[in-house]
Amino acid sequence: MGQMLERASELVAQAQRIVVLTGAGYSRPSGIPDFRSDDGVWASYDPVEVASLRAFRRNPNHFYAWLEGLLELMLTAQPNPAHLALAELERAGKIHAVITQNIDGLHQAGGSRKVYELHGHLRQATCQGCDRQVPMTSLLGDVRRGTAPRCGCGGAFKPDVVLFDEPLPQGIFWLAQKALEECDLVLVAGTSLEVAPACDLPFIALRRKARLVIVNLEATYLDDMADAVLRGDVATIMPILAKQVSRVIGG
Prior knowledge:
The protein is α/β, with parallel strands linked by helices. It has two domains: 1-32 and 79-119 and 168-251, Rossmann fold; 34-76 and 123-161, SIR2/SIRT2 'Small Domain' (2-Layer Sandwich). Helices cover 39% and strands 18% of the residues. It is built from eleven helices and nine strands. The protein has helices spanning 2-14, 24-27, 47-50, 53-58, 60-76, 81-91, 106-109, 140-144, 170-182, 202-206, 234-250; strands spanning 18-22, 95-100, 115-117, 120-127, 133-135, 157-161, 185-189, 211-216, 228-231. Strand 4 (120-127) and strand 5 form a beta hairpin. Helix 1 (2-14) packs across helix 11 (234-250) and helix 6 packs parallel to helix 11 (234-250). The chain starts with a helix and ends with a helix.
């Protein structure tokens, strides 16, 4: 990996506006399971039956019974070294924006300031009856009792995450696209690029001749187009990359 790491470090050090695209692999070292691997969340559940808007509306109690364990994990998880490395690169003036498919808020907790959450987040929930918004933590009592939290109007509170058969938040998606139009390097990290439309986002930058660096445990369909590919755990590689970039910048 030595030569490839040196190449990736040089590219990141030379870039002026880097956009990072992350996925479930970025949070796995924080103890949050991914969804699509052989031992991921969807290995035991049909996502359409438990995590679609249709399923939520049909039976909110069933939705929260499925979500409870995952919710507890995400609300108590801590940023891992990969999150801290991105914040370090942002402080060095390298990271323009982080686009993430994750809903756990760990990028912000780790120090990243400009984060576009394509699939929403767990910080708050919205009443499906009157649109009242409340912190998700205020609903944990009901969730732990096995009851879907409800508003005074009678509507069920839904976490502000994008479920199956829901559109992405268009404002956030537009900002993510805009960031990619303006960047000179895309850093894809902790995602195998299998979920649309996020998997197609790097092409916005590549069409404008931006460079591409990939850090992931598994192969992605863009590996052959990348300027550098680092295969491994982001919690191991990203801190090393950040340190190398600091060394290159410092001369």
